[in-house]
Amino acid sequence: MTAVSPRTLRAAQWTAALTAAGYLLFSLWSGWADVWRAVTAVGPGGFAAALALSAVNYTLRFYRWDTYLRALGHALPRRDHAWVYLSGFAWTATPGKAGEMLRGVFLTRRGVPAELGVAAFVAERSADLLAVLLLAFPAAWLFPAYRPLLLALAAGLFLLVVAAHQSARLARLPGVAGLVGQRLAAAADALKVCYRLRSGWTGVFVGLIAWSAEGLALWVLLGQMGADVGVVRALFIYAVSMLAGAVSMLPGGVGGAEVAMVSLLMGEGLGHGDAAAVTILARLATLWFAVGLGVYALRRVS
C-alpha cells in the first residue's frame, strides 16, 4: 500500500467539511421542517435504494476506468486499484472535480506514467460529459432556458476531441514549450487510445447507464415523497442539474446544481420547500456518499 500523508488526508477532510458547511446553510435556507418532512417521507428503505443506485454508478465507472488503463498497458490488481479509484472521490468537492486527478499520484507510485493518468482522467470526464449531455439534450425542448448551456458544452467537447488529434504539432513546439508539448503529446496519444471507436463509445454507453442510475435515485426519492414526476423527466432534471453544477466550477458543483434542480422541480409543480428538501436528499445520496467513500478509501490506500 502507498502511504497517504497526513496533510493530504487533512486537506481532503477540510475540503469536504467546508463544502458540507455550505450545504448546512443551504438546508437552513430551505427550512429544516421541510427537510425533516422529506426524510420522514422517504424513509430508510427509500434512501437505501438511492444509495444502492449511486453504488451502481461508482462500480460501472470504476470498471470503465480500469478498462482505460488496461488499454494503455497497465493492468493493476483490481482490489487495490478500486481503492485508488475511489480515493479520488474524496476530492469530488473541488472545482470541476479537478482534485480527482490526485489519484494519479497513487497511480504513478504503482508504475503508471503521469501523462497516462491524466489521459485516463480526461477520457473519463469527457465520456461522462457526453453521456450526461445525451441524457440532458431532450431537455432542451422541455427547458428552453438551458439550450445555450447544452450547446456550449457540446461545442467544448467537440474541441477537446479535435485537440486530442493534434499530438504531432504539440511535440514539434520549440524550447521549453517543446518539453511541455511532448508531455502533452504523450497524453494526447494516450487519450486517442481511450477514444478509439469501440472503447470510446463503450465508455459513453457505460456513462449513460451509470448516470441514469443516479437520475433514477432522484426519481425514487421523488416517488417516496409522493411527487408526480415521471422517470424520464426526473432523468432530464438530474442531468441538466449536473451540467449546471459542472459549468459553475464551484466545489462539487455545490450551488449551481442545487439551484438548477430546485428550479426545475418547482417547474414540475413542487413547492419550494419540497423541491429544496428532495434536492438535499438527492445530493446526500450521490455527491456526499461519494465524498464519504473517497475519504475512507484514502485511509485504505495509506
Describe this structure in words.
This protein is mostly helical and 302 residues long. It has one domain. The protein contains 13 helices and no strands. Helix 5 (114-136) packs antiparallel against helix 7 (147-163) and helix 5 crosses helix 10 (197-224). The chain crosses the membrane at residues 12-32, 38-60, 118-142, 201-222, 234-255, 275-298.
Write the topology of this structure.
Blueprint: H1 6-30, H2 32-71, H3 78-87, H4 103-108, H5 114-136, H6 139-142, H7 147-163, H8 167-171, H9 175-194, H10 197-224, H11 231-248, H12 256-267, H13 272-300
Keyword list:
mainly alpha
Précis, in short:
78% of the residues lie in helices and 0% in strands. It has 13 helices and no strands. Helix 10 (197-224) packs across helix 11 (231-248).
* Series of secondary-structure elements, N-terminal to C-terminal: HHHHHHHHHHHHH
Largest sheet at a glance? none
Which structural category fits the helices and strands? mainly alpha
DSSP, total strands: 0
| Number of domains as seen in the coordinates | 1
Shape: globular
Proportion of residues in helical segments? over 70%
**Strand percentage:** under 5%
Number of helices: 13
Average pLDDT level: 78
Give the CA-CA distance, first to last residue.
Answer: 6 Å
**Assembly state (oligomeric):** single chain
Rg: 20 Å
